[in-house]
Amino acid sequence: MVKKNRGMIVGSIGAGKSTLTNALLGRENKAVKTQTLNYDNWLVDTPGEYTENPLHYKTIMATSLEVSHVLFVQDATKKKNDFPARL
């Protein structure tokens, strides 16, 4: 069941997902390494390993069914892209 207006942030390790989560939730805390799915208020923060390791793709797909929006975060300073060009 899709939660009304809940978002999930997905991206590689160090892309800034937790930093963005803190900013969107109005927190001034320093971001810490995400170890598991973090459900907080209206956002779900995902570990970067879930994007980089195909063994975790099913978790991302299952979690996407619980949200209304998925935000893909890419580190613009890295040449590696973890998302398909035609996504």
Summarize the structure.
The chain is an alpha/beta fold and 87 residues long. 23% of the residues lie in helices and 18% in strands. It has a four-stranded mixed sheet with strand order 2-3-1-4, sandwiched between helices.
Tags for this model:
four-stranded mixed β-sheet; about 90 residues; globular; alpha/beta
Plain-language structure description:
This protein has helices spanning 17-24, 49-52, 57-64, and strands at 7-11, 38-40, 43-45, 69-73. It has 87 residues and is of the alpha/beta class. It has a four-stranded mixed sheet, with helices on both faces. The mean pLDDT is 86.
Question: Structural class, from secondary structure content?
Answer: alpha/beta
The number of distinct helices, counting runs of at least 4 residues, comes to: 3
Bin the strand percentage: 15-25%
Q: What is the terminal-to-terminal distance?
A: 23 Å
In total, the number of domains comes to 1
Low-confidence stretches: none
* Whole-number mean pLDDT: 86
String of helices and strands: EHEEHHE
Based on CA atoms alone, the radius of gyration comes out at 12 Å
Helix content: 10-25%
Number of strands: 4
Approximate shape = globular
Placed side by side, the strands forming the largest sheet appear as 2-3-1-4
- Sheet of most strands: 4 strands, mixed
